[in-house]
Amino acid sequence: MNKIVSKEYFSTNVIKFEVEAPLIAKSRKAGHFVMVKVGAKGERIPLTIADADLQKGTITLVVQKMGVSSSKLCALEAGDFITDMVGPLGRATHIENFGTVVCACGGVGTAPMMPIVAALKEAGNRVITVIAARTKDLIILEEQMRINSDEVIVMTDDGSYGTKGLVTNGVESVINREKVDLCVTIGPAIMMKFVSQLTKKYEVPTLASLNTIMVDGTGMCGACRVSVGGKTKFVCVDGPEFDAHLVDFDEMLMRLGGYKDIEREENEHYQALLNSK
Amino acid sequence: MNINAERSETWRAELRSAMKAKERTEIPRVHMPELDAEYRSHTRTEEVNLGLTPEQALLEAKRCLDCANPTCMEGCPVGICIPTFIKNIERGEFLEAAKTLKETSALPAVCGRVCPQEKQCEERCIHLKMNKESVAIGHLERFAADYERESGNISVPQVAPANDIKIAAVGSGPAGLAFAGDMAKSGYEVVVFEALHEIGGVLKYGIPEFRLPNDIVDVEIQNLQAMGVHFVTNCVVGKTITIKDLEDDGFKGIFVASGAGLPRFMNIKGENLVGVMSSNEYLTRVNLMDAASPDSDTPVFKGKKVAVIGGGNTAMDSIRTAKRLGADRAMIVYRRSEKEMPARLEEVKHAKEEGIEFWTLHNPIEYIGNEQGRVTHMLLQVMELGEPDASGRRSPVEVAGKTELIEVDEVIVSVGVSPNPLIPQSVKGLEVTKWGTVVVNNDTMQSAVPIIFAGGDIVRGGATVILAMGDGRRAAKAMDEWINKN
Ligand SMILES: Cc1cc2nc3c(=O)[nH]c(=O)nc-3n(C[C@H](O)[C@H](O)[C@H](O)COP(=O)(O)OP(=O)(O)OC[C@H]3O[C@@H](n4cnc5c(N)ncnc54)[C@H](O)[C@@H]3O)c2cc1C
Ligand SMILES: Cc1cc2nc3c(=O)[nH]c(=O)nc-3n(C[C@H](O)[C@H](O)[C@H](O)COP(=O)(O)OP(=O)(O)OC[C@H]3O[C@@H](n4cnc5c(N)ncnc54)[C@H](O)[C@@H]3O)c2cc1C
Ligand code: SF4
Ligand code: SF4
Ligand code: FES
């Protein structure tokens, strides 16, 4: 049981929690994640550790409401307890002074990008963050990203905010403008696939942080497996970050869709429950 | 008390002479009452074996000859005093029988249910030499342990006065639990660290309810808690805290019992299709996450045409679970013949009764999917048995050109597990084999790093509950001696 000490809304669907977890706060590094379970019959879901406060013994999670499990978490208030939380899991991001780094994120990927942006900045990199979404209302964490980025480029599909275009357009404009030493991308698999294709063309080394389906998060089940350079890897223990140019994104996309129908059913079931209250 | 002295006690000598050996061997072996096969293949949680009635147990106990040289004990990895507990059942002292079991086994209710008895104690029973069925040692063991639990008279073992020495177990499977129990008895302050949110290891996340109800494991855990053992769940040693942290924190000995949790795949084409998964994933979803219940948030596929690849206990558990979740066709695909199957005999029998198809001498070589990437077919290579291999089993060889294409919507790969690499990777100086198992001294279970002892599947690879438990007890004894010496 981990106590929520504070809750803050970044937007209606994006919430920041500070949670008591002294041991995790002490051992975590940028790129690590935790598995979180809400309720006795809850699902275990992976969430990136966005920040930690050693003094207070807390870690920060930034959660975007997606389906049942993230919604249940977002329904909790300060003072409530998270039933189970374990971590830090995964391999930490390899951080050094690479030079100029473009961080390309969108959708669910924006929250997990935050600690990486902060760590890269701290290591002395010039950090250019590209945030993309379909439309203005879906752009999240822009302010928070500005704190640690040298520049933030906002892209919207419909041009309602920032520059009209896809995340790849944003990344390409930077590559065309200056020398980029590394690109880091987190977001929907389809987005990472296109970012990867683009940077491959320009030969910019690229890391993708993969958000596959997970069950245990400790290497025990293989639900999170992906093909990287023709080899099967477990994202929870071998990742979550991999050389994007070696990742088989088509296979990953296929596997991510695996539980869509069941998830939709569970979500309808949950919404019905909420409505009946 | 040694076995001979026990055997010479008056009550026991009298009991022995009360009935002729011939009469005893003439009694037919008891049949474990079980749920109807058709009924049980649709109920997910009800235990298949119903347990012996006291009358049945009394009669079965009579079959045991109370041998002067009980060979059955040599077959039991922990050397349970088998005739002593059985004769206690025969004279109606069921609680006494349970006490005998507990002298040697930390989890008799579990082992009575899941030990591969036909390859261990029962294989060595004298009855077999006379062409009779062996005494049903496992059934009797379960009976005595269940009787004690249900009587409400479970004795919490005497705990020695606290010695204020802290020791840790990493992993709460049978090895960790058995170790914790013995160390608590010796007065140590025991903390068990578990990575998952549940205590019990494979007993909880692997072996299904219909074979080993969680309640039974929980009673054992409560017993340990009553003895003062602390459990810390959601703590991955090597991640949340390190072995070094434990040492700095004053732990004087660490028993690593982190199991063999890493699933193996076959690396064949199509293995990453949607609907193909490891047995660990499947069983974890169903057992640990209770995914088949409507009130659970975790999803699970309920395939209609399910194939499980493999022939071990895990394979049987997976396919019987799939049947219970509504599979119309549930198939075991195994590359050798039934004789070579590593699964317990009883599980194979139960699976057959439940309508599981056995595709022995077949091996998958490819999975085929539709546009959405969902598995729709498996391509099987027909096999035949060749010469015996290193394991003494006749090795399967391909029958050239003979394959079969079978429709499936779910495939569960159950071809073995490897040791969990986390601890071996994170501790300097630990000796590890090329299979990833931790090297220990076979008598003391002590590793190359003196403060670390290890046992169970992390040392043996995928083995059995009773072996894991035996390791835990051996490590406890040796660690106690080692700490006292230093
Ligand atoms: C290593 C890792 C770190 C993550 N860090 C964060 C984080 O810091 N903050 C955060 O908000 N989320 C993060 N995620 C994603 C988060 O785990 C999922 O959003 C969550 O599991 C969704 O669960 P749900 O039951 O609410 O939604 P579901 O009902 O499972 O899904 C709802 C919809 O979201 C899609 N979806 C589900 N999981 C993912 C996914 N992993 N990636 C993309 N789409 C998905 C589904 O296809 C479905 O359409 C991370 C994922 C991984 C693997
Ligand atoms: C489905 C299935 C059916 C089986 N059926 C039988 C049977 O019928 N009969 C039989 O005798 N045997 C059976 N076995 C085998 C038997 O269960 C194992 O041999 C036995 O459980 C091994 O015990 P263990 O204590 O070594 O490890 P486990 O039971 O695997 O427990 C290890 C525990 O350690 C935890 N852990 C791992 N790493 C860490 C870490 N770094 N920090 C903290 N905790 C950690 C794990 O989460 C786990 O809970 C079966 C196995 C499976 C999977
Ligand atoms: S513990 Fe297992 S092997 Fe030993 S007597 Fe009991 S059933 Fe037989
Ligand atoms: S060998 Fe068989 S008959 Fe003899 S003591 Fe053991 S169980 Fe009884
Ligand atoms: S989530 Fe189970 S192995 Fe990665």
> What's the multimeric state?
heterodimer
Mean pLDDT of chain A: 91
Q: In the CATH classification, which architecture of the largest domain in chain B applies?
A: 3-Layer(bba) Sandwich
Q: What is the tally of helical segments of chain A?
A: 9
The CATH C-level class name of the largest domain in chain B = Alpha Beta
State the separation between the terminal residues of chain B, measured CA to CA: 30 Å
Main β-sheet of chain B: number of strands, strand sense, barrel status?
5 strands, parallel
Total of domains of chain B:
3
Q: Look at the helices and sheets of chain B and give the structural class.
A: alpha/beta
Query: What strand line-up does the widest sheet of chain A have?
Result: 12-11-10-9-13-14-17
As a whole number of angstroms, the C-alpha radius of gyration of chain A is 18 Å
Bound molecules: flavin-adenine dinucleotide, iron/sulfur cluster, FE2/S2 (inorganic) cluster
**Uncertain spans of chain A, ≥5 residues at pLDDT below 50?**
none
Strand arrangement, major sheet of chain B: 3-2-1-4-15
Average of the residue pLDDT scores of chain B: 94
Distance between the termini of chain A: 26 Å
Helix content range of chain B: 25-40%
- The assigned structural class of chain A equals alpha/beta
Biggest interface, and residues per chain?
A-B, 42 and 44 residues
3D architecture notes:
The complex is a heterodimer of chains A (277) and B (486). Chain A is an alpha/beta fold and 277 residues long. Chain A is built from nine helices and 17 strands. Chain A has helices at residues 22-27, 68-74, 110-122, 142-148, 167-177, 189-201, 235-238, 249-256, 260-276; strands at residues 2-11, 14-20, 33-37, 44-48, 51-53, 58-64, 81-82, 84-89, 100-106, 126-133, 151-156, 163-164, 182-186, 206-209, 225-228, 231-234, 241-243. In chain A, strand 5 and strand 6 (58-64) form a beta hairpin. Chain A starts with a strand and ends with a helix. Chain B has helices at residues 3-8, 10-17, 21-26, 37-40, 54-63, 71-75, 82-90, 94-104, 108-114, 126-129, 137-151, 174-185, 202-205, 214-226, 243-248, 279-288, 313-324, 345-353, 422-426, 457-460, 465-485, and strands at residues 166-170, 189-193, 230-232, 251-256, 262-263, 276-278, 305-309, 329-334, 357-360, 362-369, 375-388, 394-407, 410-413, 417-418, 452-454. In chain B, the strands form four sheets. Chain B has a five-stranded parallel β-sheet. In chain B, helix 5 packs across helix 7 (82-90), helix 7 runs antiparallel to helix 8 (94-104) and helix 8 packs across helix 11. The longest helix of chain B is centred in the C-terminal third of the chain and has 21 residues, at 465-485. The relative contact order of chain B is 0.12. At the A-B interface, helix 1, helix 2, strand 8, strand 15 and helix 8 of A face strand 5 and helix 16 of B. Bound molecules: flavin-adenine dinucleotide (2 copies), iron/sulfur cluster (2 copies) and FE2/S2 (inorganic) cluster (FES). One flavin-adenine dinucleotide is lined by residues 114-115, 170-176, 193-196, 201-202, 206-207, 236-238, 257-259, 261, 283, 313-314, 317, 344, 420, 422-423, 456-458, 463-466, 468 of chain B.
